[in-house]
Predict the 3D structure of the following.
Amino acid sequence: MRFRTTQTVPFALLILMVVTPHAQENLDSSRHTVQMVSVEKGVSLEVLDWGGTGRPLVLLTGLGDTAHVFDEFAPKLTASYHVYGITRRGRGASSAPAPNAMNYTANRLGEDVLAVIDALHLNKPVIAGHSISGEELSYIGSHHPEKVAGLIYMEAGYPYALYDQANGQLELDSIELRNQLRQFIEGYSMEPVKDYDSLIADLQRVEKEVKEQQQDTGNLPPTPVSPRMTPDLFAIMEGRERFTNIHAPALVIFADGDNPDPVSGDDPQSRALTLRQALMKRNKEAQIAVFERQVPSAHVVRIPHATHYVFRSNEADVLREVNTFIATLPSSN
């Protein structure tokens, strides 16, 4: 059995995990103020302020969460930092513009974060994000590193945060190919293709990755989609982009979970679960290697016995790593 980094199965399982009931937060379970911050015409985001002293630290959430997911974690940081949390557009009290590709691209979501930073007059904050917010972190780290002191990826270092230039990634390559093919779908004569060589290369890359996936997982049953996946969440998934570098200091935390108990039985369901578990482990190892290869300046940390919600399952470990990393950053004064 061979495993490659182009598989989509592990990320599909991750999506199912992050929008299941255990991921939901208890609203207003800690002391904070709430304000609505305008990020573009007609769109305002809920921003929580837990207070505190020291340099600003902004928390970004996973796919299905609001900033209240940090209600227990954020107060542990206020002794050293002034802590804020942002609820992404489409979630909670934040505005929910139409769930189309333009309203929820990685670039648009990253610009939302920058708009909040500017509105609150935060001077080079540290931004820490969980899960899908890795794309917002990498948008800022790729295009506006001067705006931040550092970036912290809390189980957010997946392909949407850093694209594997050497091996590709089927979901992200497919999104890019779709965007290029849209020129033909929406009227080729109105906007001629600017780079046929690039288009052909993407076609060939996706064809290769599809064949590899067919060979490795073609007999697996479809991965179930959580009923909690709403149109805005699908729009975020469709708006992912390929970030290839990060130009800001970065701490990248991966949850090194316990190996699951071996699946007994030789029935199709047991075999499928065993294969999915192996793929998830293999692809995480491959993604860690991508960070080490493409962003050698990043500090990559594995936290053992942890879950995807690593700031909950291993709070003390995450706090230690966050404090150690921020202590290495130049003063924002």
Observations:
- Residues 1-10, 20-24 have pLDDT under 50 and may be disordered.
- Residues 46 and 175 are 29 Å apart (CA to CA).
- The two ends are 54 Å apart (CA to CA).
- The chain has nine helices and eight strands.
